[in-house]
Write a structure and sequence with these properties.
The complex is a heterodimer of chains A (290) and B (566). Chain A is of the alpha/beta class and 290 residues long. Chain A contains 8 helices and 12 strands. Chain B has 3 domains: 310 residues, Butyryl-CoA Dehydrogenase, subunit A, domain 3, CATH 1.20.140.10; 107 residues, Butyryl-CoA Dehydrogenase, subunit A, domain 2 (Beta Barrel); 126 residues, Up-down Bundle (Four Helix Bundle (Hemerythrin (Met), subunit A)), CATH 1.20.120.470. Chain B is built from 18 helices and 11 strands. Classes of the chains: A alpha/beta (290), B alpha+beta (566).
C-alpha cells in the first residue's frame, strides 16, 4: 500500500534565541534579527510521516510550506531527513496573513495536489503559538482532524489510528482517510539528516533559486527532476484575492507592549510538609506549575 | 545546541589542506561514480562540500545527543544477559542516531553501500565523536574493521559483510587472549577446518572491545602444532551463526560505555579471511595501523574536550577577586594544553593524509597497473604513514593524558569531585596510551624511522618549505633542535648496542616528534594566523623537551644503565 503524505511545515524565527531586536515597532516579528529554523513540532510531524513511509514502501512524503522564497531551505532540510520533495507557496499577496488567511491559502494548495491520503503537521508554530492552522485546513477541506497526536499507531488505505496526548492522559482514536493530523512536541524526535541524502539533495533548488545558479547546477536540475522544488503562486492555487494576505486577515495587531512580571504577593511558609504540600496542590490546581 | 564541528574552526582548517585535492581526485577516480550514484560528487569542490556537510551532521549529533548521553552512559554502562551484551540506554540511542544519519561504513566504496570518504574526513568524524563520548567512539570507530575485509577478504565476503556494516552493524577485532596481549604471536584460539571448507573456532578471547558485535574479525591458530605468528590466520565470525558467548564484561576505570568482553568460542562457525598463515603478519598489522590512527583521533578528541572544559572553568571560576585564567600559572597551563592539542591534531591529519594517498594507490592497483611514478609515490607515502602512525598514536595519547590531568588541576578540588565532566575525561583518557599498543610499543615501531632517517628527511622537507618572514625565527629554533637531535641519535648509534638503542629509543622518538609537530604548527600558522600562538608556545615546549633529551643522552654513558636494571 503506498500513500501520498503531505507534511505542513513552516520556517520560523528561532524564538529560543530572542534578543532585544526580536520585535519591530509595528508589533510584527523582525525576522531578520532571528535565525530561521524548521518549526520544531513540524519536525515531529515529519518523523511520523517518514515512519508511515518506512512501513509502506512506495509512499511519498511531500512538504508544503507557505512563506518567503527562502523557505525552500526547510524543504531541503526535510529531504536530507527523508522527504521526497516539497512545494513553497510563495507570493507577495500572501504576506501578512493571519491563521484564517493562511489556512485558506494552504487548503487551496492542498487541493492542487489532487490525491492525498493524509496531511500531517506540527501542533503549532513557535512564532505564533496558535495551533489553529492545522485544524482550520481540515475544516476548509471538509475532512476529519486529529489533534495532539503523539504517535500514528496504524494506517491502512481507509483509516488511521492515532494516539493523542491530552492533559490528563492518552486517548487512541481512529479516523477515516484522508484527514489532518497535528502532532505534539512529545512525539518522537525527527531522525537526523542523513549523510547519503545530504549529498544527493544538497543541490535541490526552487524555481527562483535556480535563476541565480551557475550553469553547471542548472544542468543538474534539468537532469535530475527530483532536485526541483516547486514554487506556487496564489493564482496558481486559485486563491480568492479577498481571502488571502492582509485583506483576508481579520486579525490585526493593535499594540504591543513589554510586560514585566513582578510578584504581587508573597507567602511565608513554616518548614512544614503539610503547608508545602498544600501550596503545591494549589499551584497545580491553578496551573502555575504542572 | 552545540555543533562540535561548526564550533571548532581548526577542523575546517585541517580539512582544507592543499593535499586534499590530490587525495580526492585519486579517491574519486576522476569522479566516475557521478554517472552511477546520485550522491557521488561531480568534482573536487563538490566532494569537499559533501565532507563539510556530513561532518556538520556528525557535529550536530555529537554536540547534542551523544555529548548529553555521555554522563548517563558512564554511570549505567553495559551489562551481560544470557551471554549477550546489553548496551546502556544512551549507547543504544547514540548508535541508532549514527545509523539513521548514515555515518557507518563512511570510507567504504559506494558499490558496497558506503560513502567512499577518504580516511581524513572519517578520522575527523572520530575526533569529533571522541570529544562527545570517548567510549562511544570505540563502538562507532570499529567500522574501521570493514577496511580489513575490503582489503583482504574475497569478493563474496565483501558483498556479504560490508553492506551490513554500512547499514549499521557493529564490528569487533578479537585478537587479545589471557596469555596473548602485547605478544599476539602467542594466540591459542583454535581454528579447525571442516570438510565443507568452513572453519570452527574454539577457545577464549579476552579484553575484546565491543565483543558482542555483529561481525567479528578473529585471530586464531589454524596451523596445528605451530607456536608463533606464522601459524595464525584471520577469520570472520558472523553473530547470526552463533557459537560465541560473552562470559563477562570488565569493570573498567574509564570508557565505561564501551563493553570490554571475555568471549567463549564453542565450535563457532567462521570463514577464513584472506590467506592462511597471514593473519598476524599481514592482516593484523594492517588492522592495527588503522586502529592506531583511530586511537590517535580518539586522543585528540579527548584533548579537545579537556582543553575546553578547563578553559570554560578557568574563565568562570573567580578567586582573589578575578577569574583564575588571569593568573600566569593558569593561563600558561591552558596555553600549553592548547599547543599540545594543536600539535597532536596537526600530526593526526598529516598522518591521515599520508594514509589516504598510499591506501588509495593500493586500491587503484587492484584495478590497473600503477605507473612507475605512481608506484614510487605509493611507496613514499606508505613509509611516511608507517613512520607517523606510531608517532601520533604514542605522543597524541600521552598528550591527551597530560591535558586531562591539567584539566582536573585547573578545576582544583572541584575537579576531584564527580560533579564535573573532567573526572570522566581523565578516566577515559587513561586507556589511550595503552590499547592498540602501549606507548612503549609505539616507540618500538617508530624507532627504525629514527635510525633509518625517515623522520630526519621529513624534517628537512618541512624546513625547506616557504614560510612567512614572521615565522622564520621559530624555524631557526627548530633547525637548532634538529642538529641536537642528529647529534643525540649519532651518539646512541655509535655505541652499536641494541639494548642501549632500546633504552634511549623513547627519548629519540619524542625528539623527532617534537620537531615534526613544531614544523607542522609553523606550516599551519603560515596558512592560518589562528595557529600562530600555538606554533609559538609549542616551539618553546619543543625547545625545552628536545634539549632535555639531548642533555640526557649526552651525559649518559652506557654503563650507567646498570642502575636502572631490575
Amino acid at each position: 500500500m503506498s500513500l501520498n503524505i503531505i507534511v505542513l511545515a513552516k520556517q520560523v524565527p528561532d524564538t529560543r534565541n530572542v534578543g532585544k531586536d526580536a520585535m519591530k515597532e509595528d508589533g510584527t516579528i523582525n525576522r531578520a534579527a532571528l535565525p530561521a529554523i524548521f518549526n520544531p513540532e513540524d519536525l515531529n510531524a515529519l518523523e511520523q510521516a517518514l515512519r508511515i513511509k518506512d512501513a509502506n514502501p512506495g509512499s511519498t512524503v511531500t512538504i508544503l510550506t507557505m512563506g518567503l522564497p527562502r523557505a525552500s531551505e526547510i524543504i531541503r532540510e526535510a529531504m536530507y531527513r527523508g522527504a521526497d520533495g516539497g512545494v513553497v507557496l510563495t507570493d507577495r499577496v500572501l504576506g501578512g496573513a493571519d491563521t484564517l488567511a493562511t489556512s485558506y491559502s494552504l487548503a487551496q494548495a492542498v487541493k492542487k495536489f489532487g490525491k492525498y491520503d493524509i496531511i500531517l503537521g506540527g501542533r503549532q508554530a513557535i512564532d505564533g503559538d496558535t495551533a489553529q492552522v492545522g485544524p482550520q485546513i481540515a475544516e476548509k477541506l471538509g475532512i476529519p482532524q486529529v489533534t495532539y497526536a503523539e504517535e500514528i499507531l496504524e494506517i491502512n488505505d481507509k483509516n488511521v489510528v492515532v494516539k493523542r496526548r491530552l492533559e490528563n492522559g492518552v486517548e487512541t482514536v481512529k479516523a477515516p482517510l484522508p484527514c489532518v493530523v497535528t502532532v505534539n512536541g512529545s512525539a518522537a524526535d525527527c531522525r537526523p539528516r542523513n549523510a547519503m541524502r545530504i549529498q544527493k539533495y544538497k543541490y535541490a533548488a526552487s524555481t527562483s533559486e535556480k535563476a541565480n545558479l551557475p550553469e553547471k547546477q542548472k544542468e543538474l536540475l534539468e537532469k535530475r527532476p527530483y532536485l526541483n522544488i516547486n514554487e506556487w503562486s496564489a493564482a496558481y492555487v486559485d486563491a480568492d484575492p479577498t481571502q488571502i494576505g492582509m485583506p483576508g486577515s481579520p486579525t490585526k495587531v493593535k499594540a504591543i507592549e513589554n510586560v514585566v512580571f513582578t510578584a504581587k504577593e508573597s507567602l511565608c511558609l513554616d518548614n512544614d510538609d503539610t503547608q508545602i504540600e498544600n501550596l503545591i496542590k494549589e499551584l497545580i490546581a491553578n496551573h502555575t506549575i504542572g | 545546541m552545540a555543533n562540535f564541528y561548526n564550533d571548532n574552526p581548526d577542523l575546517k582548517h585541517h580539512l582544507s589542506h592543499p593535499l586534499m585535492q590530490k587525495i580526492v581526485e585519486l579517491k574519486e577516480r576522476n569522479f566516475a561514480d557521478a554517472q552511477t550514484y546520485d550522491y557521488a560528487p561531480q568534482d573536487f569542490e563538490d566532494a569537499m562540500d559533501s565532507y563539510d556537510k556530513v561532518l556538520e551532521i556528525v557535529g550536530e549529533i555529537c554536540g547534542g545527543t551523544i555529548a548529553d548521553n555521555a554522563e548517563g552512559v558512564d554511570h549505567q554502562g553495559p551489562h551481560v544477559e544470557n551471554g549477550r551484551v546489553v548496551y546502556a540506554d544512551g549507547t543504544k540511542e547514540n548508535l541508532d542516531l549514527c545509523r539513521k544519519a548514515g555515518l557507518m561504513g563512511m570510507s567504504m566504496p559506494r558499490r558496497l553501500g558506503g560513502l567512499n570518504f577518504p580516511i581524513t574526513p572519517y578520522i575527523m568524524a572520530a575526533d569529533i565523536v571522541s570529544r562527545a563520548d570517548t567510549g562511544f567512539e570505540n563502538l562507532w570507530g570499529l567500522q574501521d574493521c570493514a577496511e580489513t575485509i575490503y582489503e583482504f577478504a574475497n569478493e563474496e565476503q565483501k558483498q556479504k559483510y560490508i553492506p551490513r556494516v554500512c547499514q549499521g552493524e557493529t564490528m569487533s577485532m578479537d585478537l587479545t587472549e589471557p596469555d596473548a596481549g602485547s605478544d599476539l604471536q602467542s594466540v591459542m584460539l583454535k581454528a579447525t577446518e571442516q570438510p565443507d571448507g568452513t572453519w570452527r573456532l574454539n577457545g577464549v578471547k579476552r579484553f575484546i572491545t565491543n565483543g558482542d558485535s555483529d561481525i567479528h574479525l578473529v585471530l586464531a591458530r589454524s596451523e596445528d602444532g605451530t607456536k608463533d605468528g606464522r601459524g595464525l590466520s584471520m577469520f570472520i565470525y558472523d553473530k547470526r551463526d552463533g557459537g560465541v558467548d560473552v562470559r563477562r564484561i570488565e569493570n573498567k576505570m574509564g570508557i565505561k560505555g564501551s563493553p570490554t568482553c571475555e568471549l567463549v568460542y564453542k565450535n563457532a562457525k567462521a570463514e577464513l579471511c584472506g590467506s592462511r598463515r597471514m593473519g598476524l603478519i599481514k592482516y593484523v598489522m594492517a588492522l592495527m595501523n588503522g586502529a592506531r590512527l583511530g586511537i590517535a583521533a580518539q586522543s585528540v578528541g579527548v584533548s579537545e574536550r579537556a582543553y575546553r572544559e578547563a578553559l570554560a572553568y578557568a574563565k568562570d571560576r573567580k578567586q582573589f577577586g578575578k577569574a583564575i585564567i588571569e593568573f600566569p600559572a593558569v593561563y600558561e597551563m591552558l596555553a600549553v594544553m592548547k599547543a599540545k592539542l594543536d600539535a597532536s591534531r596537526a600530526l593526526l591529519y598529516e598522518t591521515s593524509r599520508f594514509v589516504d594517498v598510499y591506501k588509495i594507490y593500493e586500491d587503484i592497483a587492484k584495478e590497473r597497473t600503477l605507473t612507475p611514478d605512481e608506484r614510487k609515490e605509493m611507496k613514499a607515502y606508505t613509509k611516511l604513514a608507517d613512520a607517523c602512525t606510531p608517532l601520533v598514536k604514542g605522543m597524541g595519547s600521552e598528550y591527551c593524558n597530560q591535558n586531562a590531568y591539567d584539566c582536573i588541576q585547573i578545576h582544583g578540588g572541584s575537579g576531584f569531585m564527580k560533579d564535573y565532566a573532567c573526572e570522566r575525561v581523565y578516566r577515559d583518557a587513561r586507556i589511550t596510551s595503552i590499547y592498540e599498543g602501549t606507548t612503549q610499543l609505539q616507540v618500538v615501531a617508530a624507532i627504525r624511522h629514527v635510525t633509518t632517517g625517515t623522520y630526519l628527511s621529513m624534517i628537512n622537507d618541512y624546513a625547506a618549505q616557504e614560510i612567512k618572514d614572521s615565522l622564520k625565527p621559530l624555524r631557526d629554533v627548530l633547525v637548532d633542535l634538529t642538529a641536537k637531535y642528529e647529534k643525540a641519535v649519532a651518539t646512541v648509534m655509535e655505541v652499536k648496542d641494541q639494548a642501549y638503542t632500546d633504552f634511549m629509543a623513547r627519548r629519540m622518538v619524542e625528539m623527532a616528534g617534537n620537531i615534526i609537530m613544531g614544523y607542522l604548527l609553523i606550516l599551519d600558522a603560515n596558512r592560518n594566523d589562528a595557529f600562530t600562538h600555538s606554533a609559538e608556545v609549542y616551539n618553546k615546549i619543543a625547545q625545552a623537551e628536545v634539549t632535555k633529551h639531548a642533555e640526557f643522552i649526552a651525559n649518559f654513558s652506557p654503563a650507567q644503565q646498570e642502575a636502572y636494571k631490575a
